[in-house]
C-alpha cells in the first residue's frame, strides 16, 4: 500500500495544539462528546447521501450514528491487536445480523477513479488491510496518516452492502483516538473537497486526503481551545 511522504514538520503544529490542550483539559473523551461529536455525526450522515444517494444510506437515524461513534470512542484495543472483528462490531449497529456481512454483489464506484474490489475478494482484502495495520511500518506513521490511509483502503474495498461509507468513516477515527488526538471538525460544505481528495488517493496520491484531514483536526483544536479559554 502507498504511504504518503509528508514530513514530521507538517504535523508539528497539530502536535503543539495537542500538547496545549493536554495541559488545559483532563477528560478528552468528554470534550469530544460535547464539542465535536454533534457536528461530526452531522457531517458523516451528510456524506453517505451525498455521493450515491440511490444506495439510500441516509436512512440511518442520528441516534444510531451517535451510538456507532460512541462504540469507536470505547474501542480500547492496541493497534497491534486490531482485526476485522472490530470493524464488524461497528457494522452491527446498522443491522448486520447476517452470518457473512460482506457485500456479495458489485459496488458502484464512489468517484471516477474508484475501482471497488470484486465482491469475492473482499474478505481477503479486509484481512490484508488489518495485517498491514498491525505491522511496524503502519505503527511508524502519524495518526493522521493512519486515519487517511484507512479511509482510502476501506473506501476502496467498500466491504459492506449498505452503510459501508458510514462504518468505514467512523472506524477510521480510532487511529486518532488511540493516539489521544481530537477527532476532526469538518464542514458539510467540504464534502465535494473530500471526494476530490479521496479520488486522488485511489490513484495512489494520498497527500491531498492527509492535508484535508489535517486541516479538519487543526480546526477541531482551535474550536476546543477557544471554548475552554472563553469558559475559563
Mind explaining what this structure looks like?
The chain has 232 residues and is mainly alpha-helical. Helix content is 59%, strand content 0%. The protein has eleven helices and no strands. The protein has helices spanning 12-24, 28-50, 62-73, 84-91, 122-133, 136-139, 143-157, 164-172, 174-177, 191-202, 207-231. α2 (28-50) packs across α3 and α7 (143-157) packs antiparallel against α8 (164-172). The longest helix is centred in the C-terminal third of the chain and has 25 residues, at 207-231. The protein is globular, with a radius of gyration of 17 Å. The N and C termini lie far apart (45 Å). Mean pLDDT is 89; it is low at 1-5 and 52-58.
Oligomeric nature of the chains: single chain
The tally of beta strands, per DSSP, is: 0
Give the H and E element order: HHHHHHHHHHH
Terminal-residue CA separation: 45 Å
Percent of residues in helices comes to: 55-70%
Low-confidence spans: pLDDT under 50, at least 5 residues? 1-5, 52-58
Strand content: under 5%
Total helices: the number is 11
Mean pLDDT: 89
Shape: globular
What structural category do the secondary elements indicate?
mainly alpha
Main beta-sheet strand count, sense and barrel state: none
Amino acid at each position: 500500500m502507498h504511504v504518503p511522504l509528508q514530513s514530521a514538520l507538517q504535523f508539528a503544529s497539530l502536535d503543539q495544539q495537542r500538547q496545549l490542550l493536554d495541559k488545559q483539559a483532563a477528560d478528552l473523551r468528554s470534550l469530544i462528546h460535547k464539542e465535536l461529536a454533534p457536528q461530526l455525526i452531522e457531517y458523516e450522515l451528510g456524506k453517505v447521501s451525498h455521493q450515491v444517494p440511490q444506495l439510500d444510506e441516509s436512512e440511518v437515524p442520528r441516534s444510531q450514528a451517535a451510538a456507532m461513534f460512541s462504540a469507536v470512542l470505547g474501542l480500547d484495543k492496541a493497534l497491534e491487536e486490531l482485526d476485522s472483528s472490530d470493524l464488524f462490531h461497528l457494522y452491527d449497529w446498522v443491522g448486520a445480523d447476517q452470518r457473512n456481512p460482506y457485500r456479495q454483489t458489485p459496488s458502484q464506484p464512489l468517484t471516477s477513479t474508484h475501482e471497488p474490489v470484486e465482491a469475492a475478494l473482499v474478505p481477503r482484502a479486509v484481512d490484508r488491510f488489518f495485517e498491514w495495520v498491525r505491522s511496524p511500518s503502519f505503527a511508524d506513521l502519524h495518526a493522521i496518516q493512519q486515519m487517511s490511509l484507512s479511509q482510502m483502503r476501506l473506501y476502496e474495498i467498500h466491504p459492506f452492502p449498505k452503510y459501508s461509507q458510514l462504518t468505514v468513516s467512523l472506524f477510521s477515527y480510532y487511529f486518532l483516538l488511540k493516539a489521544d488526538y481530537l477527532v476532526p471538525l469538518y464542514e458539510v460544505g467540504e464534502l465535494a473537497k473530500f471526494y476530490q481528495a479521496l479520488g486522488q488517493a485511489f490513484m495512489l496520491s494520498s497527500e491531498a486526503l492527509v492535508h484535508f484531514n489535517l486541516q479538519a483536526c487543526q480546526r477541531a483544536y482551535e474550536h476546543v481551545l477557544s471554548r475552554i479559554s472563553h469558559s475559563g
